[in-house]
Specification:
The chain has 15 helices and 14 strands. By secondary structure, the chain is of the alpha+beta class. The strands form 4 sheets. The protein has a 5-stranded mixed sheet with strand order 10-11-12-13-14, covered by helices on one side. Helix 10 packs across helix 11 and helix 14 packs across helix 15.
Length: about 400
């Protein structure tokens, strides 16, 4: 294994590890394609924003192409074919059921008052009697939404303006005493794990906390291909001291190979199973919460791509738009586009589009136009429009017009 990687090699390693090896995104996609990709990624991050599509749907689309979202729903929330479960991993996420034992240390910590979210730990200490009351209600009534919880109160508004009942259910969820049975739209319905998670999964032995964290760090490194300690720790949001110990163990055992990466100030670690391909990449729009870009400093180190989501930024201060998706083309991030799925009009709107300084505008626009039409079809929209904002807007509008003209003559 090499002791040094060029930044181009590191990009290709990372892209290949994430499933971007110029996949055929025009084929029919089945669960047989989706399941291995989820196992490769380890998790799909969940987010409430639905401007284009819920975030957990997008990583599979970016790598595989158009698939039936209902197939993922069935495997995530269906009773008969469930293959995924929901927990706090890299934020709220869907994980393969086989990883359930590896996440039990986190719920055990939460039950002991040492969870990820201190507000829940405090609520759990101060409202133990109410938590027991809510847990008893779920036990007796089955799948429960927050509004059904007795004494739950009303939400106070805002992103995290949870009611008392919602906070109780989320604290129980954090502690692993309830889990997600299904979702109604995006609203979580909570139930007991033994009524949701298959019995054979619950019966799997629980590894020790050090063994679980070591295995999760190994999986993170496989998903990254190459990364810094912060990159590897961030994937499953692992605790710092335990990560350092697990990292040293994996290096000693030859699972992780220390490498220097061109331009990186931090030590890099290459997984022993990582490929260093001559080519890797693809053409795809990425969710803001895609593993390729969710750690913003890693996106800068790999792609020289400075990226921040501007949903919470006041409109006059936004530089690129409200909901901006990075655009991967070949092995670089060539641009970004502010998208909105206008479902009422049946139009995918590229309200603003920008290319990076290294990218050729005409080539980028042509590739992006094709990707926008592919995404529109996947979302059930009939047209694509491009606004006038951004340094790629003019070329993108020309590319979309050209593609429309070709379609009309064929």
């Amino acid at each position: 294994m090499p002791e040094k990687l060029s930044i181009a090699q590191a990009r290709r390693v990372a892209l290949a590890a994430q499933g971007f090896s110029f996949p055929d995104r025009t084929r029919k996609v089945t669960w047989g394609h989706m399941a291995p990709m989820i196992r490769r990624l380890n998790l799909l991050q969940i987010d409430s924003v639905n401007v284009v599509a819920r975030s957990h749907y997008l990583p599979l689309y970016s790598r595989l192409g158009a698939y039936a979202q209902e197939t993922l729903d069935e495997r995530a929330f269906g009773r008969k074919k469930r293959a995924l479960f929901e927990c706090w991993a890299h934020e709220a996420s869907l994980l393969p059921l086989e990883l359930h034992p590896l996440m039990r240390w986190r719920t055990a910590r939460a039950r002991a008052g040492d969870g990820v979210y201190k507000s829940m730990d405090q609520f759990g200490r101060e409202q133990r009697a109410y938590l027991n009351e809510v847990l008893d209600f779920v036990t007796r009534n089955g799948p429960t939404v927050a509004s059904e919880v007795p004494g739950g109160g009303k939400a106070e508004g805002g992103w995290w303006g949870w009611s008392k009942g919602k906070l109780a259910l989320e604290t129980l969820f954090d502690q692993g005493l309830v889990t997600t049975a299904t979702r109604d739209g995006f609203e979580r319905l909570y139930d007991l794990p033994e009524r949701v998670i298959p019995a054979e999964v619950l019966a799997l032995p629980t590894p020790s906390e050090p063994d679980a964290i070591r295995r999760l760090l190994d999986l993170s490194a496989q998903a990254h291909g190459v990364g810094t300690e912060i990159d590897l720790r961030d994937y499953f949001r692992l605790p710092i001291p335990e990560t350092k110990s697990a990292l040293a163990s994996l290096v000693e055992d030859g699972v992780l190979i220390p490498v220097s990466v061109e331009g990186w100030k931090q030590q890099g670690y290459l997984h022993r199973d990582a490929r260093i391909p001559r080519k890797a990449g693809g053409t795809a729009l990425l969710s803001p919460f895609d593993p390729m870009v969710w750690e913003r400093s890693r996106a800068e180190r790999l792609f020289n791509f400075h990226y921040r989501i501007e949903i919470y930024t006041p409109a006059p201060q936004r530089k690129f738009g409200y909901y901006v998706l990075p655009f991967l083309h070949h092995d670089r991030i060539a641009g970004r586009v502010c998208l909105k799925a206008d479902r009422q009009a049946g139009v995918l709107r590229a309200n603003a589009s920008h290319h990076e300084t290294h990218a050729d505008p005409a080539e980028t626009a042509a590739a992006l136009a094709g990707e926008l039409r592919l995404m529109a079809g996947w979302l059930g929209l009939v047209d694509v429009s491009a606004g006038a904002s951004g340094n790629l807007a003019k070329e993108l509008r020309k590319a979309l017009q050209a593609a429309t003209s070709v379609a009309r003559t064929t």
